[in-house]
Specification:
single chain, 604 residues, mainly alpha, Neurolysin, domain 3, 2 domains, two-stranded antiparallel ribbon, two-stranded parallel ribbon, disordered N terminus, Peptidase_M2, M2 family metallopeptidase, glycoprotein, signal, disulfide bond
């Protein structure tokens, strides 16, 4: 650049030369920014790791009355917040971004990441941030330490889920469903408080509300995201309407009851009605039966073996040493968070999973899903991706990859190759497709509709606390065609029984995005790499599939997620592959529903 300026000085006038020399030197600006980024990253990694370690302890060993974990989480999160949201960091980052045209794109991406993180912890409202951290910690302790009881006996959420999946006793189902919602009473005030604290925190850096802040991570406005979510629901609505009608009649038959206009929530095999797949058993695909005698560790190793078969490395020994993978013994003196999750503790090689693996089909799918996150972490932990950009291309990508591999692991050819089903077994493909639709299609009105609209109302529309439950059930009726088994007054807060409402707030549309993306990726892999029917694939052992996934994963957040999608599958985000996948099911459902009364509108 300096030589170019000298040449210009000789070619043009002295005035022109002086004008060019008056411009900021790009190399100097880049060097200054790079020094800032490196210094910031060093401290950030140290503080973020300390926070993650404290959060890990708080999620894996919950002791009633013990405040040690709460204290450690509070202190480490405060230190992290104080640094990441410091006035100095914010001012320097904003100043550097004023010259973003003179910086490398990777530098700009890191600066934007720093500023986004600072908005959640601005020093200008440090007392507010401190209060929010304490409130979030208290909310988690209440949520994960809650003692669920049925007929006076303590039950785990896994026990309750098993009843809802398998029991034909409506009285038993009702007791367990109601027990699962009791935690909401204890969380309602905390959720209201958190809503106000989160909104006030991010408003300090100019965000309208916490929902808008979270959506901005996609490079989108709140209105853009709501429009995209509404389109997703509209796209799948004709199929959802058929599934809802089919389920009403099948469930009424099962419980020897009149066909309801809307489905009573306790009739469904999931606490929130987000997954109905347990309503269908596919003969020849008795995966639970095939796994019942397996050790839980075998399930985990099978997941790892799959990833190794397509060309990924073995998991580090520390993964098994540090993870919390299995249910606690019955005589344990503490509790743990049983919600499956994957953790990138230090943005390097400390990788962990928190689960309670049991030898069931659900956990067989879950382990492939969660290890999808772990291998995503591993893929973008490389020299080409700075630690600040070690995340998914967008938050939905992470879930999409996990769900993609979960789907692949449950298809018959894959299962047959692992000896979990008989390759020659006659399987009713329509019933199998129905079971899949009761998982993937059913989920979208819940995630893109109920959860997204509720959190938008909570944060952006300042939903009054005395209307939390009314709003939740109005949305469940509209989007899911589901109603509570009896009146649920405002003493309840059934929305807060959903973990994400409390500690992964205003981000549930990530999962809706992920389901659309997973079918786009799966469609591409099946048709263009494996040359197989998308309904019957076997990824196992395909290095070509592994190579494709590595290309998607290895850049982390060091890309434009829209461009990455186009480069990977050749199209923008679209529900078309998902609709094509389930198109054969529509004919069957219309035949089943002939003469039946539809209670959901044709369009929303």
């Amino acid at each position: 650049m300096k030589n170019s300026l000298l040449i210009l000085c000789f070619l043009f006038t002295l005035v022109a030369c002086k004008k060019d020399n008056s411009k900021p030197n790009n190399d100097n600006i880049k060097a200054e920014v790079q020094t800032f980024l490196e210094d910031y990253t060093k401290t950030y990694k140290k503080l973020a790791y300390a926070s993650a370690l404290a959060e890990w302890d708080a999620n894996t060993k919950i002791v009633a009355g013990d405040t040690t974990n709460a204290y450690n989480v509070q202190k480490t999160n405060e230190a992290y917040a104080k640094f990441s949201g410091s006035t100095d960091v914010i001012e320097k980052t904003k100043k550097f971004l004023e010259n973003k045209d003179q910086l490398d794109l990777v530098q700009v991406r890191q600066l934007n990441t720093i500023l986004y993180g600072a908005a959640n912890n601005p020093q200008t409202v440090s007392e507010l941030v401190k209060e929010r951290i304490a409130a979030e910690n208290a909310q988690n302790e209440t949520l994960f330490g809650f003692d669920f009881k049925v007929d006076g006996k303590s039950k785990s959420t896994g026990d309750i889920d098993n009843v809802l999946r398998t029991s034909n006793n409506e009285t038993e189902r009702l007791k367990n469903w109601e027990a699962s919602k009791e935690v909401g009473k204890s969380l309602k005030d905390g959720l209201d408080n958190l809503r106000h604290l989160r909104n006030k925190t991010v408003s300090a850096l100019g965000y309208d509300d916490y929902f808008s802040y979270q959506v901005s991570d996609y490079g989108m406005t709140r209105e853009d995201m709501l429009n995209d979510m509404n389109k997703m629901v509209s796209d799948v609505w004709p199929l959802y309407r058929e599934l809802h009608t089919w389920a009403r009649y099948e469930l009424a038959k099962k419980y020897n009851a009149e066909v309801p206009e809307y489905i009573p929530a306790h009739w469904l095999p999931n606490r929130w009605g987000q997954d109905w797949s347990a309503l269908v058993n596919v003969e020849g695909l008795d995966i639970d039966g095939a796994l019942k005698d397996k050790d839980p560790e075998w399930i985990v190793k099978e997941g790892e073996n799959f990833y190794k078969s397509i060309g990924f490395d073995a998991l580090p020994a520390s993964f098994y040493e540090k993870s919390s993978m299995y249910p606690l013994p019955e005589d344990a003196t503490y509790k743990k968070n049983n919600h499956a999750s994957a953790w990138h503790m230090d943005l390097e090689n400390d990788l962990r999973c928190l689960m309670s693996v049991e030898p069931t089909a659900e956990y067989y799918e879950t382990i492939h899903h969660e290890l999808g996150h772990i291998y995503y972490y591993q893929a973008y932990t490389n020299p080409d991706v700075p630690p600040l950009l070690r995340g998914g291309a967008n938050r939905g990508y992470h879930e999409a990859i996990g769900s993609l591999l979960g789907l692949a692991a449950m298809q018959k050819p894959f299962l047959a190759s692992k000896g979990l089903v008989d390759a020659n077994a006659e399987i009713d493909e329509t019933q199998n497709l129905l079971k899949e639709a009761l998982n993937y299609v059913i989920f979208l009105p819940f995630s893109a509709g109920v959860m997204t609209e509720f959190e938008n109302a909570l944060y952006a529309e300042d939903l009054p606390k005395d209307q939390f439950n009314k709003k939740w059930w109005a949305l469940a009726k509209k989007y899911q065609g589901m109603v509570p088994p009896s009146n649920r007054g405002e003493e309840y807060c059934d929305a807060a029984s959903k973990t994400h409402i409390n500690n992964d707030a205003a981000q549930y549309y990530d999962y809706a995005v992920s389901y659309i993306l997973l079918f786009q990726f799966h469609d591409h892999i099946a048709k263009n790499i494996l040359k197989q029917d998308p309904h019957a694939t076997n990824y196992y052992g395909s290095k070509a599939v592994g190579d494709f996934l590595k290309e998607v994963l290895k850049t982390g957040a060091n890309n434009d997620w829209r461009e990455l999608l186009k480069e990977s599958v050749g199209s923008e985000m679209s529900a078309k592959p998902m609709l094509e996948y389930f198109a054969p099911l529509m004919t069957y459902l219309k035949e089943q529903n002939e003469g039946r009364t539809y209670t959901l509108p044709e369009t929303l």
